[in-house]
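Good day; I would like, with your permission, to put a structural problem before you. What I wish to show you is a protein chain and, alongside it, a tokenised description of its three-dimensional fold. I would ask you to consider whether the tokens describe a fold that such a sequence might reasonably adopt. You will find the record immediately after this paragraph:
***
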Amino acid sequence: MPAKPDATKERATVIQLIHIARREIQMSDDAWRAYLQQAFLVQSSTQLSLTRLRTALAHLRRLGFLPKRADGQPLPARLAQEWAFVDNAAVPRQPLLRKILMLMRALPVVRGQQVAYVEGIARQMAGLGATAIDKPLPMCDEFELRRIVVALVTHIRRVQNRAEPVAADA
């Protein structure tokens, strides 16, 4: 059994948040342990490094967990980590994901909501004569990512064309 990583205050906080998330989304202990075994080859979250704990917490967020502040309001997603999965993606997919990231900079979408925005566009692609893509962006293959890039370029053109007449009238 691997040794437990060094105990730090931040690790303890993330582990505590993971347990809150599991309770909130009603994930059973067996399901959690199966996820840990499949994703990290460990039996307990205490055996994970801080980086892997953050990955596990991101998984719980994708499953519907929304961390809350003391006043009950949801915490914003950590902006720096929204696109962190791009660096860990398969090498052939990284340029396409980076292209999507660059295209998102042309839109007035707040950081922390950009991945969800792209996933929403992918779900709407069924109206373009293609099948919709109904899975998280990090799980899309190269073909699906290319289709998303094309849809984003089209979307950006439409947004810019709508904005130009308004600017000309001013």
Summary: The chain has a mean pLDDT of 81. Residues 142-169 form the longest helix (28 residues). The chain has seven helices and no strands. The two ends are 68 Å apart (CA to CA).
